[in-house]
Amino acid sequence: MERDETDRGGATCGVCGIPLEARPVARFEIQGFRYDVRPCARCGGAGTSPVPSPEELGRFYGFRSYRADDGARFNALVERVVGLARDARRRRVERLAGKRGRLLDVGCGRGLFLRRMRRAGWEVAGVEADAEVSRRISEAHGLDVRGGDPGEWGFPDGSFDAVTLHHVLEHVVRPAEMLGHCRRLLRDGGLLVVAVPNRDSLQAAFGRDGWLHMDVPFHLHHFTAAGLARLMAASGFRVVRVRHFDLEQNLFGWVQTILNRCGLPRNLLFDFLKRPSLRDDASGAGRGWKIAASFALLPLVIPAGAVLTLLEAAGGRGGTVEIAAVKKRA
User: Could you tell me which of 55, 28, 8 has the C-alpha nearest to residue 216?
Assistant: First the structure.
């Protein structure tokens, strides 16, 4: 569905605040709506233009599996891997924080990470944008999960020792404002950990519009590692660590991106690994043999992806980047 040019104008970089370049680096047509990924000439990041309305997002996925599901999203084997990855994230946060305290997970999904942190002795709270989803998570797991805009969360200023945003900031319309809210909620010296896809990665360069982590239209901003670090510094934080290795996100990012570039339907394997009720059957005729072809290629693709994951991390160009910072005194 074509929009007026006035609808497409005015898109700005989430890091620099300057207008994005007019010429897109990628274009997506999704259920009749067209979205461009337009680069920023200053920081190398990009933005999705136009920003989809909540009604459009509801039409695409109906909040189906993205954040509305209280239970498992994937099959049992994948869920086990996801759980191990959350435990690894917990250990990283604990090493950086130095001691247990109070943690807020912004965009907590179904609360899996919060439950891991609570079992380890942390006092935890979470945020999910949709009020109904947050209510169901709270009731299902006995967690303090709140919904709505940051002004509606109701947490006192300086009440958290750590705040985490894992693959959340790219979904936020105004990322600088979100980091400002996180800073307000942290005590002085408190820890902020942000993870996003890295547009400056080898994965992104290889995958182009077939890159797994270019999830248009849900991803509104496409950060580089340098751009995100600059935004966090400008928001009152001191960066203490930049991590380019994430076995969960980066290895599978390579595997799925390579399969996409082989001509198979975009993100078909990722979709197939979900629970049957959450799968998208829009991959066209011959889905069965396309899935079989994906699995047949895995003995070649997984080792290649593992090597590339190590190489991109060593070169500081990981498919995703996790940046830890501490709140500077005012």
Answer: 28
